[in-house]
Each structure stands twice: as C-alpha cells, then as structure tokens.
Amino acid sequence: MSAQSREQFQPVTRDVSARGARIRFVEAGEGPTLLLVHGYLASHVSWQDVLPSLGSTFHVIAPDLPGFGESEKPSPARYRYSLDAFAESLVDLVAALDLGRVSVCGHGLGGAVALTMAADHPDVVDRLVLVSPLVYAPRVDAVIRLSMQPVVGPILFKQLYGPRLFMNHFRKYVYGPLAKLPTERVHYLYEAFNAPAAREAAYATMQSMLDARSLVARIPRVTAPTLVAWGRQDQAHPVANGRRLARELGGARFEVFECGHSPNEECPLPFVETVTAFLREPNGKGV
Q1: Domain spans of the chain?
Q2: pLDDT tens digits for 146-171?
C-alpha cells in the first residue's frame, strides 16, 4: 500500500450536532458508507479491531452514541436515551454528513438501534448487519436486576458501580469464556462511564432498553437485506434468539461465530470477511 493510500485510511475524529446532542465519531476509508453502532456501556473503540480492514473497502463511520464515549451526555430531561432517540440522532448524523443511503452494522444495543433505523427509515438504511442485537429479553445479571429496583437501584448504579463490577460485567457477559479480556479497552470505557452525567445517561438507557416489545413489533417492517451475526458462547443473548430473529426478518442470513457476545472483537478476521462478503453481494444475501 502506498503512502498516499495509508494516509487515506487513517481514521479521523469529527463532531456533529444531531437532535441537539454533539456526537463524536471516527471516520475512515472510501467507498459505500458503513455506519457502525456500538453496544451498551461501550463506544466506537469496540470497532477498533475491524476498522482498518473495513476501511479498506468502505467509508466507515463509527459514532459514540449520545451519553457514551466522547459524545455529549445531556441530562435525561433533555434527551430521552431510548432506541427511538438514538435512531433519530443517527439519521440526523447521516443527513448532516450528506451520506445518502448507508449500510448499518449494530452490536448489542447498537443492533437494536440499527433495527429501529431500518424499520422507521427504510429510505436511509440500504443493508443491515445485526451483531448479537438486544431484541428479545436478555439474561440480566444480579447487579443489573438490583439496579432496576426503586430507591436503592439508582444509588447502586450511579454511585457504587465501581471498576470491579464494571470489569466483571464485560468479562462475563460481553466476552466469551475463552476470550482474552482487553483490559486497557475496558478501563477506557470505565473512565468514560465514571462521571455523573455518563452514569445518568447509562442508567436512563438501561431503563428504556430492557423493554424491547415495541421493537419486536416493528420487525415485520424491516425490508433491508439483513445479516444476523451471533456468538455461540454469548452468555446474555442465547444463540436461539439469533435464529428466531433471522426467521422473523423473513429469512435473513444467519451466521454463528465461535465466540461470546462480541464477534467483532473476539474473531475480527472472520467477522470482517463475512460482513464484507454480505455487503458486497449484489442481491444482499452474501456468499
């Protein structure tokens, strides 16, 4: 690769205002636009292992959702922190950057946001990749269940949810049992989370995302060609949920990876190959 080509694929960081919140995003590559949407308690860094490879084929946009990472964290009184709000923010981002129709790849919470975008804005979403999306009721750990209780829950989550609990959540529910924990990445995510405004945003998001009944009802409205990707060892979202989602999407392509909840981090090379083949296939069904 020439020096000019290497410079072309260097990611750059930019900001844009969408739905009244400043969104920070990373941008790399040229070609058809691929929007990458991260999961809960995460940020664009979740895509770091696949960004260079995807950026060699696509124009990649990886935002931090409002309330997460380096994006603005408005008060829940000003921003709803719901699937609808996140989806509308990303639609605004697409419009602000004059991207036209885009492919959207979402992981976990980001998968639910991507699905919402595809259902409500079919004119924006060309193709859809759903990576272990939060669609059906997940297995919720004891800390999250306690955090949802009145009075004591907000105190636990906003004040007592420390680095050890945060790390344990990622170790058990985000990465598979055989995966090497990316300690530095999780520490970075904890630092982004460990501020009053960020904890408020994360708590408001948790309250809204655990009831996805309205999202399930919208599944029949999705017309974009879709790839559903799942980790066989996903501890929070059983692989059976992926098979169900692929069926309910009218026979979407279904791919299982030998990993936990995060194929994009745990097995990046097979993930990139599968996603690239799907997005480049003329009929949207992959190979």
Answers
A1: 3-280
A2: 787 877 888 888 888 899 999 998 99
Which residue in 123, 91, 129 sits closest to 111, CA to CA? Answer: 129
Q: Is 167 left (phi over 0), alpha (psi -120 to 50) or beta?
A: alpha
Split at pLDDT 50, 70, 90, the class of 20 is: confident
CA distance 94 to 110: 16
Dig out the tokens for 278 from the structure. 């799907």
First vs last Cα of the chain: how many Å apart? 27
The predicted-structure confidence for 255-281, as pLDDT tens digits, reads as follows: 999 999 999 999 999 999 999 999 998
Q: Give the DSSP letter of residue 67.
A: T
CA-nearest of 174, 170, 142 to 156 is: 142
Task: Judge contact between 44 and 27, C-beta under 8 A.
Answer: no
Distances, alpha carbon 271 to alpha carbons 177, 267, 268, in Å: 18, 6, 5
The residues, ordered by sequence, that sit 6+ positions from 223 with a Cβ below 8 Å of its Cβ are 118, 122
Distance, in Å, from the CA atom of 209 to the CA atom of 266, rounded to the nearest integer, reads: 24
Banded model confidence at residue 285, pLDDT cuts 50, 70, 90: very low
- In this structure, what token pair is assigned to residue 64? 């931090």
The architecture of the domain spanning 3-280 is 3-Layer(aba) Sandwich (3.40)
Reported as type and span, the H/E element at residue 4 is helix 3-8
Q: Are 100 and 91 in contact (CB under 8 A)?
A: no
Q: What whole-number distance in Å separates Cα of residue 85 and Cα of residue 37?
A: 14
For residues 233 and 176, is the Cβ–Cβ distance under 8 A? yes
The pTM assigned to this predicted structure is 0.93
Decide if 34 contacts 59 (C-beta within 8 A). Answer: yes
* 200-220 as b/e: b if 16+ CB within 10 A: bbbbbbbbbbeebeebeeebe
Q: Which residues pair with 139 in a beta bridge?
A: none
